[in-house]
Amino acid sequence: MIEVAGSLKRRLAVWLLLTVTGLGALLMIEAWSSTHRAAERAFDSQLEAAALTIAEAVQWQGGEPLVEIPAAALQILATRHQERVFYAVLDADGQPVSTNMPFTIKPEWRAQVADAPWTLTTAFDDTSWRLYGREYDSAGWVSQEPVQVWVGHTRAGRQALGDELFERTLSRFLAMVLLAGILMAMALRVALGPMRRLRRQLRHRDADDMGPLDARVPEEMRELAQTLDHLFARQRHSREALLRFTADASHQLKTPLAGLKSTSELALKSQDPADWQAALLAVHDGADRTSRLASQLLSLARLRHIGEEGKVTPLDIVAVLRECVLDWAGREVARDHDLGLAELPGGPLWVRADGWAIRELLGNLIDNALRYTKAGSEITLGLSRHRDTVSLYVEDDGPGVPFEARERLLQPFERGGRQDTDGSGLGLAIVDSIARQLGGRLSLSERSPHGLIVTLHLPLIDPPSDHDASRPGEPGATRETPP
Amino acid sequence: MTLHRHRFAWMLLVPLCALALSARAQATPLVVEAALDIEVVEPLLEAFRSAHPEIDLEFHDRSTLTVDALVSEADPAPDVVISSAMPWQMARVNEGYAQRLDSPAARNWPAWAKWRNEVFGFTFEPIVMAYRLDLSKQMMPPQTHADLHTLLTTETAQLQGKVTTYSPLKSGVGFSLFQQDARYTPRFWDLVAGMGRVNAQLEGNTRTMLEGLSDGRYWLGYNLLGSYAMVWAQEHPEVIVQVPQDYSLVMMRMAFIHRDAPHPAAAAAFVDFLLGREGQRVLAGQTPLFSVRPDIVGPYTAARLRDQVGDRLYPIPLNASLLAFVDPQRRDAFLARWRREFEHPRPAADEQVFIQDSD
């Protein structure tokens, strides 16, 4: 099921937006303070100029400082923003020689200015003012006391200039963001191009085209492309396997049917009831084999396609093995063989498996052993426990299988080069399928001096709770020999 | 019959009075403290009253120094303050006594005639010389400042006590005008010395000077408000108004809304009216105060005055430099110099050099 959760473009855009907004906000805070600082500096220099102009007009007459405030100084103070202006010329005692407003210059301010020129922002009657104070040495005939010149103006112009500078910065930044956004959108389009091309290629692919992809992809999409290629390869393989299986199955069914046809044709040409009898028997045998073949094919198909949905529960493999061997030992087909159980480990061993699957597996292995060994051969089943796996083995002292043929044995319709039995060659394929399904592994090995050992390795699991444990089998006797 | 009519009239009058009274009771009061002759400005006030019947305008005509004092002392504060003493008005605005007027008329007002959008120069009054016809019989009437100086130097005997001008001490307007004169040329002090030599009479306002001219007490007046003088000259043919041909100062009445105006809305309406097309049209047509607005047509407009007089009009700049004029030390220094020049005039011979220079 495909669930569309957001779009890559939107996600990228959101991240970009967040980044730009966050960084932009920081940048803008910085810009705001720096532009306002710049405005303050620009206007502070006006204050300095005005103070200088006023200081220039200070003269001493009869021991008293006299100042004729120059009109130009006031115009410099007012600036083109028409600020309200303040000036004060203070004598050495801090008494105003000349001032235009009843502002008090605090003693500590005067002390500060005595050292160096000083600028401060302060509030007078609900308005913010910027003041600049500076002390000037002056020389008169009677007195040589210094005078302080204080000038100030309201801060509307500074605000306006600062805001103007900031707005300019802001508008440039926004234009840049807009441009970056557009370029980013274009870049995104280009960057997502390979994905679009891949999509188009997949869409236009023929339904039965399982060949590998032929596409140029960027590094980030290599894995995706490779996975797709793997998927196609697996599909191709399973499709080929299916076709082969179908062909093989048809072929296998065709042979006994052809036999039935020729037997029945021969019988029809004959007038002898004895021939009919023999033919009927042959037909009966053939039908038997065919039916068995069909049922095996069915079970193989079921294992391969439906088995995945089967229910798997914890199972005591010891109990199932014992039960199964007892069952087979009592059958007609095992009459001529020595079917036995090796010593079993004490207590139940739990694996995750379905009862019918294990029984089917054991049945096939036992059936195979009975079928491909001579009468009187010894067939032994057993279990050996390892740390976290359990091995179930079936060994016989038959002729064995040559090493080269062993791997092929697991393929359907493979009889290990033996044409002398009436087996279908499906048994081990079924066993292999079941083993895979149970998460186990099948291995074939040689028994000395002769014979074959088929071993199924299954992972062990923790015992189920007591409630479940009592059900699958009764772990009673520790060792048992079948009759 | 007549009796009936009277009774009828009475019956009509009583409810009318009651109506008028109740309307008056509901009207918003508006107090304007102004240094502006009420006879001159009456048409403007009438126009305002009819345009805003809901406002009960109270107009007080006072001297410039009284108006200035009222700004800080009156309780409750006046709504609108109008004065021709430009430096004092400016100082008050700088001290924060004005509030900003934000209206289209205020925004579109020429920048050279306003400051901070708080105070507006709404008239354009040239500063003129005026002389009596008798003068022209005796000598060539002055057309420029230099002419005046020449007369004061050459006709000292004949002009003794016949010249009048503002007292810089008693009149804020006069002080401002002399300050501005002194800014333009240092030869102004020669003029002051010349006036001292003829014992010029110092008056407190233009009206007294004009009356003196009509009475025959004075022959020549310097630095009169053109607005008053021109009206006077229309009714008194013996007085001739001369706009100086070298340069003519232009004074502007400055109006602002008081920061603590008890009726700010009415005050804003009033100033808006002063600056608006309507008020300026009345100003240009029915008063000699001259309209500042270039889009107004009438006998008294700045544009028309410029056409007549040429480019020699020098409006007193409405900016922070005005504040220097009211600086106490500067004022003292200026008055001290005035007194020195006026009371102990240098011998005329000393200045001959300058005069020849200028000619």
Keyphrases for this structure?
heterodimer; A: alpha+beta; Beta-Lactamase; Helix Hairpins; Heat Shock Protein 90; 5-stranded antiparallel sheet; 5-stranded mixed sheet; disordered C terminus; B: 359 residues; alpha/beta; D-Maltodextrin-Binding Protein, domain 2; 7-stranded mixed sheet; 17 helices; 14 strands
Can you describe what's shown?
The complex is a heterodimer of chains A (483) and B (359). By secondary structure, chain A is an alpha+beta fold. Chain A folds into three domains: 156 residues, Beta-Lactamase (2-Layer Sandwich); 66 residues, Signal transduction histidine kinase, dimerisation/phosphotransfer (DHp) domain (Helix Hairpins, Orthogonal Bundle); 160 residues, Heat Shock Protein 90 (2-Layer Sandwich), CATH 3.30.565.10. Helices cover 51% and strands 18% of the residues of chain A. In chain A, the strands form four sheets. A five-stranded antiparallel beta sheet of chain A has the order 4-3-7-6-5, sandwiched between helices. Chain A has a five-stranded mixed beta sheet with strand order 9-11-12-14-13. Chain A has a two-stranded antiparallel sheet with strand order 1-2. In chain A, strand 13 and strand 14 form a beta hairpin. The longest helix of chain A has 49 residues. The radius of gyration of chain A is 51 Å and the shape is rod-shaped. Chain A starts with 7 loop residues before the first helix and ends in a 14-residue tail after the last helix. The C terminus of chain A is likely disordered. Chain B is an alpha/beta fold and 359 residues long. Chain B has two domains: 155 residues, D-Maltodextrin-Binding Protein, domain 2; 157 residues, D-Maltodextrin-Binding Protein, domain 2 (3-Layer(aba) Sandwich). In chain B, 51% of the residues lie in helices and 17% in strands. In chain B, strands 1, 2, 3, 4, 5, 6 and 13 form a seven-stranded mixed beta sheet that branches. In chain B, strand 1, helix 2 and strand 2 form a beta-alpha-beta unit. The termini of chain B are far apart.
